[in-house]
């Protein structure tokens, strides 16, 4: 069972990465950072890192790279001057909105192998396995 899951997950990840590259990103982390900001709004660097599973050094590097491309900007929080939030720029918002739309379509195409009943069953089983694995740690 594990070998089947492992092989399938690696094939899906390769498909996902290829879709992200076709959307104009060389880095999965750059796409993930912009996607989080698109859906959650401005966040501190450490919160972004936690959402996209990057270490503090890696997330700082990714945000620096995106800032150099003028896709994100850092601004002090209006409510707490000690906190620096990362915001999408207009260019960044346009870039990730277009890329995310195309990427979501590609992922929908991938999962068309399942009908709606199978999708619901797959989601239920994947959640059940994940919860069970977490409990067994």
Q: Name the structural class.
A: mainly alpha
CATH superfamily: Winged helix-like DNA-binding domain superfamily/Winged helix DNA-binding domain
Radius of gyration: 17 Å
Q: Can you give the mean pLDDT?
A: 96
CATH architecture: Orthogonal Bundle
SSE topology sketch:
Layout: H1 2-22, H2 28-40, E1 43-44, H3 45-52, H4 56-68, E2 72-76, E3 84-88, H5 90-110, H6 116-136
Antiparallel strand pairs: 1-3, 2-3
Helix pairs in contact: 1-5, 2-3, 2-5, 3-4
Descriptive account of the structure:
The chain is 71% helix and 9% strand. It is globular and about 50 Å long. α2 packs across α3 (45-52) and α3 packs across α4. It has a three-stranded antiparallel sheet with strand order 1-3-2. It contains six helices and three strands. The chain has a single domain (2-136), classed as Winged helix-like DNA-binding domain superfamily/Winged helix DNA-binding domain (Arc Repressor Mutant, subunit A). The longest helix has 21 residues, at 2-22.
Brief rundown of the structure:
It contains six helices and three strands.
Features:
137 residues; 6 helices; 3 strands; mainly alpha; Arc Repressor Mutant, subunit A; single chain
